[in-house]
Amino acid sequence: MSEVEEVARRTRRRRRRDNPTGEMPLREHLTELRNRVVKAGVAVLLGMVVGFLIYQPVMAELFRPVNELSRDGRISAIAYDTVASPFDLMLKVSLFIGLIVSSPVWLYQIWAFIVPGLKKAEKKYALGFIAAAVPLFLLGMGLGWLVMPQAVQFFVGFTPEGGATLPTASVYISFVTRLYLAFGVAMVLPVLLVGLNMLGVLPGRTIVKHWRITVFLIMLIAAIAAPGADAISMVYMAVPLVLLFGVAIALCLWGDRRRARRAVRREQDIETELASGPKPLHEI
């Protein structure tokens, strides 16, 4: 190890010893926030570049359910209401893709900014939350991709005979992105329950006590976010959610028992210390 590296290592140790909680003055907080925002912004911009590259095939796949309906004798197509709409839509869709692609980066930047204000155990919980939330969010988006054609067919099926379905591109893309986000956010909810339980805010027994309401809300979310003519889209969302909530409840109950055992051991240690009486001066 070089002399410069040794000096830097000693400096970091001295800073941790002098400031174990990681407290920073306001100016350093603002500097840290600026750096995190810049890094997250660069990641989103790079993700937008990926969005621009795959924009055409993605839009062709998104428009496919509507275009296929026109082959069945219905008049169905996506329309652009202004000359600049194609360019505006390309920017919005590319930004949406960029946010998805760069989600691990900007989520980590949020976590890294919050970490200095958390305790050691809370830091592990935050890191675990992000490690579980990102794959589940992407999984939910993937399920939304599978369900989207059936949802489009379901709604277009209400068009009266002789009518035409000509949604504007901006309205149609807003519907699709909301559908995807509904799936993604729904998949993250069980992780949020586990996180609240680990922080001691939501006991597992409370979730078990209201399991009927939980199942009802799952079915309601599935019905609203993923309506389908044959209920297949609802099953796509409901089954993974029920399984994830079951795992979340099991983890919450396990966490409750672990904290209860720790509390009992802590009380026993205190009682043992009190029963042993005051220590002699030479042992203090």
Automatic annotation (TrEMBL):
Keyword Aminoacyl-tRNA synthetase: no
Superkingdom per UniProt: Bacteria
InterPro entries hit by this protein: TatC (IPR002033)
Subcellular location per the Swiss-Prot or TrEMBL entry: Cell membrane; Membrane
Molecular function in Gene Ontology: proton motive force dependent protein transmembrane transporter activity
A Pfam family matched in the record: TatC
GO cellular component terms, A-Z: TAT protein transport complex
UniProt xrefs under HAMAP family: TatC
Protein name, as recorded: Sec-independent protein translocase protein TatC
Gene: tatC
